[in-house]
Specification:
Layout lengths: L16 H28 L1 H7 L1 H86 L3 H5 L13 H12 L4 E2 L8 E2 L1 H10 L9 H4 L4 E3 L9 E4 L7 E7 L2 E7 L3 E6 L7 E4 L2
Parallel strand pairs: 1-2
Antiparallel strand pairs: 3-8, 4-5, 4-8, 5-6, 6-7
Helix pairs in contact: 5-6
């Protein structure tokens, strides 16, 4: 055998450059894909990091929810308080209305009772004076009956001089109150009014009706003149006096119910009269 004889080789045939380049390109592509996948892996993991931070967001949200709940509770409390206040105000208004109605009813009842008492007192006073006059008339043999006759005549002439001043003063006090012991200027008792009337003309009368009924000259009720002093009861123990103003009229401070009034002699006929002027 020749030394130069061809010996078969077991090496694989050398690949061509194009195939080598192709394989290199494929390998590079795979490696690039792996690299891209590796790079994409960490980028997609960032939401995990944000999820770890969620407790901070949840904590802030809890605080806001708690504040909102507290505000809602406060509003509810305010509404409840307002409702209670409105209910209390309505209840107070109802009570006040009821109390006012009761006060009005009570006032009306008292007014009616006062009117009834006034009427009763006036009737009692008239009855008392009638009884006194009857007793006095009986003790004097009936002489009083002629004085109370409806045919009796009274002087209706106009007052003059001092009598006119007395009459004018007495009439000016009509409507004033009656007060026991009253001597004016806006409240009187019977003798206080008569005394003040005569004081205007310089006549100083005694203070009480008993003494006034004997001060001056006794005159008949059939011959009265303006300015005469009328009295009820007997002379020296009279329980009431007034001023005769003419025309069958007198002015007197009667009682606490009527006050100072002008009346006809027929309203409450006097027992006697005295003339001072």
């Amino acid at each position: 055998m020749s030394l130069t004889a061809h010996i078969p080789s077991h090496r694989k045939p050398r690949q061509s450059a194009s195939k080598t380049a192709l394989r290199a390109g494929v390998a590079g592509g795979v490696l690039s894909t792996i690299a891209v996948a590796g790079a994409a892996g960490p980028a997609q993991a960032e939401p995990v990091t944000q999820t770890i931070e969620m407790p901070t967001i949840t904590s802030g949200l809890s605080t806001a929810v708690a504040a909102s709940a507290q505000a809602t509770q406060q509003v509810a409390l305010d509404l409840e308080t307002q409702a209670n206040e409105d209910a209390a105000a309505e209840s107070a208004a109802k009570k006040a209305k009821k109390a006012k109605a009761e006060a009005v009813r009570k006032a009306e009842a008292e007014k009616k009772a006062e009117a009834a008492a006034k009427k009763k007192a006036e009737a009692a006073e008239r009855a008392s004076r009638t009884s006194v006059r009857t007793t006095l008339s009986a003790s004097s043999g009936g002489s009083g009956s002629s004085a109370s006759s409806s045919s009796a005549s009274y002087s209706s002439s106009n007052a003059t001089g001092s009598a006119a001043a007395v009459v004018a003063f007495a009439k000016a006090q009509v409507g004033d109150a009656y007060v026991p012991g009253g001597t004016g200027p806006n409240s009187w008792d019977c003798s206080g009014l008569v005394q003040a009337a005569f004081r205007t003309v310089g006549v100083d009368l005694p203070r009480v009706s008993q003494a006034q009924s004997t001060f001056g000259t006794q005159v008949s009720l059939n011959n009265l003149q303006p300015g005469d002093i009328l009295y009820w009861g007997s002379a020296g123990s009279a329980y009431h006096v007034a001023v005769y103003i003419g025309g069958g009229q007198f002015v007197g401070a009667q009682n606490s119910n009527t006050g100072t009034v002008q009346r006809s002699l027929d309203y409450d006929r006097p027992t006697g009269a005295v003339r001072v002027l």
